[in-house]
Amino acid sequence: MLRASALTKRYSPAAPPALDALDLEVRDGELLFLLGANGAGKTTTLNLFLDFTRADGGVAAVDGIVVAADPVAAKRRC
């Protein structure tokens, strides 16, 4: 299961957030498609779940493992 709670990412303090308080839950067996215009936050969302970048706020979790707390275990679950 993937879960995001108030997940937020800013690449620059002066710019609008790339991801602004995303709440998301994808249960086992479900498919998720991320659709949107350029700059909508699709790649940023994936990067946060894979710990390629760190969130400025909120929590990303994979099967209950908080990505920021244990990124290696979270990646193993992916």
Features:
about 80 residues, alpha+beta, four-stranded antiparallel sheet, 2 helices, globular
Tell me the fraction of residues in β-strands, as a range: 25-35%
Q: Calculate Rg over CA atoms.
A: 12 Å
- Please list the strands of the largest sheet in the order they lie side by side: 2-1-3-4
Largest sheet geometry:
4 strands, antiparallel
- What distance lies between the first and last C-alpha atoms, to the nearest angstrom? 9 Å
The beta-strand count equals 4
**Overall geometric form:** globular
Q: Which class best fits the helix and strand makeup?
A: alpha+beta
Identify low-pLDDT runs.
none
Helix-strand topology string: EEHEEH
As a percent range, the share of helical residues equals: 10-25%
Please give the count of helices.
2
Q: Residue-averaged pLDDT, rounded? A: 94
Task: Annotate the secondary structure layout.
Blueprint lengths: L1 E8 L9 E8 L15 H8 L7 E6 L2 E2 L4 H7 L1
Antiparallel strand pairs: 1-2, 1-3, 3-4
